[in-house]
Design a protein that fits this description.
The protein is built from four helices and 14 strands. By secondary structure, it is an alpha+beta fold. Strand 1 and strand 2 form a beta hairpin. The chain starts with a strand and ends in a 15-residue tail after the last strand.
């Protein structure tokens, strides 16, 4: 899943890429955008994804309770675009199409999502990643403010809260007899003494941590596909498309 945040006045853009569309990914994308902008916009216009809108009947919108908690924490007003009306959020839609043809086309995406997100942000900061000022057959006024202008309108942003809003996915970790905890398609190893314990698993886009109370038992980097992570920071991948059991348990 990709999240793209754009400031209306400065056209400053911040992309984030994730493996899934879970609420934890949505919150992490918002937190990273706020940090990059140096503040929180006073009003946020959202698409009608389930992480933002859980129900809608005409103009009556029921926002996700977690989004409302984030809005109260950061003091912004959440709004939702009208369904099937991309013109309401044209600043974002235009940049999504421009990124598909200018950034993703011909690019090797078989890299960690953290690195791919960093490359996308660097690409957005380059002058050539700005939308064109004119299009044949159209007036130039539609694009006269399309070029990002960092610094414009940033004085109206709300200051970042002192304590960040929690965005990690937290769940109980089940340790099997081989001292591994499964999260999605990642097997995370833990010390042998925790084979029968019930620690907590804390994950975001880049890392998976195993906690026992307040202490950290293990920390591993997430990877796409089936993999077995050892005690080091980098996982040891198994063969693509095959489960660890099908590959004979190699890496364990």
């Amino acid at each position: 899943m990709g999240l793209l945040a754009a400031l209306s006045h400065s056209r400053q853009t911040f992309p984030s890429l994730f493996r899934d569309a879970r609420m934890a990914s949505f919150l992490q994308g918002r937190a990273e955008a706020f940090q990059a902008f140096g503040g929180v916009p006073r009003r946020l216009l959202h698409d009608n994804l389930k992480s933002a809108v859980v129900a809608r009947r005409g103009k009556a919108v029921t926002f996700n309770p977690t989004l409302l908690a984030l809005a109260a924490h950061c003091a912004f007003e959440p709004t939702a675009a009208w369904p099937n009306s991309p013109e309401e959020k044209g600043r974002v839609e235009r940049r999504v199409g421009f990124a598909r043809t200018g950034f993703f086309a011909g690019r090797d995406i078989a890299v960690p999502l953290g690195e791919l997100s960093a490359a996308a942000r660097e690409w957005c900061r380059r002058p050539r990643s700005a939308p064109p000022r004119s299009v044949p057959g159209r007036t130039t006024t539609a694009f006269r403010s399309g070029t990002p202008s960092p610094g414009r309108g940033l004085e109206s942003l709300i200051a970042l809260p002192a304590d960040p809003f929690p965005h990690h996915e937290i769940r109980p970790a089940r340790i099997d007899r081989t001292c591994h905890a499964r999260f999605d398609t990642n097997d995370c190893s833990v010390p042998p003494g925790f084979s029968k314990a019930l620690p907590t698993l804390v994950a975001d886009r880049d890392e998976v941590r195993i906690l026992d109370g307040t202490g950290e038992v293990a920390r591993h980097r997430r990877s796409s596909g089936f993999s077995t992570t050892g005690s080091g920071p980098s996982p040891t991948r198994s063969m693509p498309g095959r489960s660890p059991r099908a590959s004979g348990g190699q890496g364990r």
